[in-house]
Amino acid sequence: MTEVRVPTLGESVTEATVATWFKKPGDKVAQDEMLCELETDKVTVEVPSPAAGTLSEIVAAEGETVGVDALLASISAADDAGPEQPKERSQKENGDRAEAKDEKSDTGGSGAEMDVMVPTLGESVSEATVSTWFKKPGEAFAADEMLCELETDKVSVEVPAPAAGVLTKVLAEEGSTVEAGGKLAIMSTDSDAAPAPAADDKDEAPAASSSGTGKDVEDAPSAKKLMAENDLTDVQGTGKDGRVMKEDVLKAMAAPAASAPAPAAAAPRAPVAAEQAAREERVKMTKLRQTIAKRLKDSQNTAAMLTTYNEVDMSEAMALRKQYKDEFEKKHGVRLGFMSFFTKACCHALKEVPEVNAEIDGTEIVYKNYVNMGIAAGTPQGLVVPVINDADSMSFAEIEKAIGEKGRKARDGKLSMAEMQGGTFTISNGGVYGSLMSSPILNPPQSGILGMHKIQDRPVAINGEVVIRPMMYLALSYDHRIVDGKGAVTFLVRVKEALEDPRRLLMDL
After folding, report:
1. Predicted local distance difference test score (pLDDT) of residue 206
2. Which residues sit opposite 129 in a β-bridge?
3. 19-67: pLDDT as tens digits
4. Letter string b/e over residues 70-92, b meaning 16 or more CB atoms within 10 A of that residue's CB
5. Which residues are catalytic?
6. CA 269 to chain centre
7. CATH value of 2-106 in 2.40.50.100, 3.40.30.10, 3.30.200.20, 1.10.540.10
8. Which of 88, 255, 314, 488 is a plausible cystine mate for 470, CB 3.0–4.6 Å?
9. Cα–Cα nearest to 389, from 400, 399, 376
10. What's the pTM value of the predicted model, to 2 decimals?
11. 339-352 vs 485-500: helix axis angle to the nearest 10?
């Protein structure tokens, strides 16, 4: 018998959720054939079969949370005398289920009930808002058909049906807030199942709240580690069944700060005449918009933010783009834009001024020997910052393809959590909207963000003569706690030099 266990998931990742099983008990498997897929808060991990044989037992079902090296399943060897045992057991179980179904049909019962759960939402995301239900109680659906859509403070998450069946009861209505791992609805695998009476909702509410009173549940590994490091014992958990999550410990650690003088409360809204109030519309802020507001304000309150400016003559970059854009698109299948020029110029400058590519972690400075470039993108839902990993090692074509792909996903609301995490520096292009000058706000925990602006013909003095050139203002906002004025100015000058003479990028000057 060969055991299938959870592989190493990566640095600081201690648990994962079983997303999909590609094999069922009794199925034959070849060595290295994919058995299942795990989802962590950062990546999706495929688990291959360690040996050829027959999948005899699945220990961790879909939707379960498992730790590193936990037992997932077991495999009977191909030459084992009893490879057919799982199949026989499966046939017996099928027979038992068939008998149970016959009994249920004799007594008017329905198929097995299943819970529709909130999926893993991503790193540091513990709750979501139910945005839209695509199915109503009583409606049938196929396996993997979308049942509802959740909105977190970063992305929208679609919830597929775990199996074919009928939606019997919705537990979380549209607009309600749900926690990761919580119940969304109840479904039945019997297509003839009827929706549960609405009155049951009242009976279930107390039971749901009382289930979280017990503390005989395993706290999140990251939470236990933080509590041990900070000598915390009594932390109120907000996870499923009262489970203590990392966010709960962070809130408890910040609790002493509550004794500090509280900031002045926001001024009350001025009275509005009745006839004017009738013409107003109140709309609840989306989770994404609330998070944008909170993060930007936190950034201002935390970092010693300062902005320095420069301007760049875009003549050479524009001429180079015009000369090669047709050949570039023909060969690489993507248009040559200015973002690749700026990305390359920033990567070049960050090598010389590494503190702009660093971040503060407590009393330490973490220098990044790579560049994960965040490209701010405006969407109908709000501002998002998809990240291009290892942009410093990519070509112009690879950068343009990555920007195009991430931009499409951002507009369609299809960006994953992993695609918006891990950025070390950000570029924000307000020029596409006509902005001539602005001071971008840092994207914490990053220490620098470059603001691009509109290219505008302006008179400039060159060699004692006034000429008209396509000019752009550049703005670098930086955290003055680790970036000095000299470093910030040097960074902007290096970006300016690279854009005004793109050949410097080839020469690494």
Report:
1. 39
2. 151, 177
3. 888 888 888 888 888 888 887 766 677 888 888 888 888 998 888 888 8
4. eebbbbbeeeeeebeebeeebee
5. 480, 484
6. 35
7. 2.40.50.100
8. 314
9. 399
10. 0.49
11. 140
pLDDT < 50 regions, the chain: 81-110, 193-215, 257-264
CATH topology of domain 289-507: Chloramphenicol Acetyltransferase (3.30.559)
**418: Cβ–Cβ under 8 A, 6 or more apart, which residues?**
42, 43, 122
- Digit-coded pLDDT (tens) for 148-165: 888 776 667 778 888 888
pLDDT at 252: 76
- The rounded radius of gyration (Å) of the Cα atoms in the chain is 28
Give the model's pLDDT for residue 146: 85
Q: Where are the domains of the chain?
A: 2-106, 113-198, 289-507
CB 299 within 8 A of CB 442: yes
- CATH number of this structure's domain 113-198, picked from the four choices 1.10.150.80, 2.40.30.10, 1.10.600.10, 2.40.50.100: 2.40.50.100
Match 């299809």 to its residue by tokens: 414
CB 2 within 8 A of CB 50: yes
Q: Are 85 and 34 in contact (CB under 8 A)?
A: no
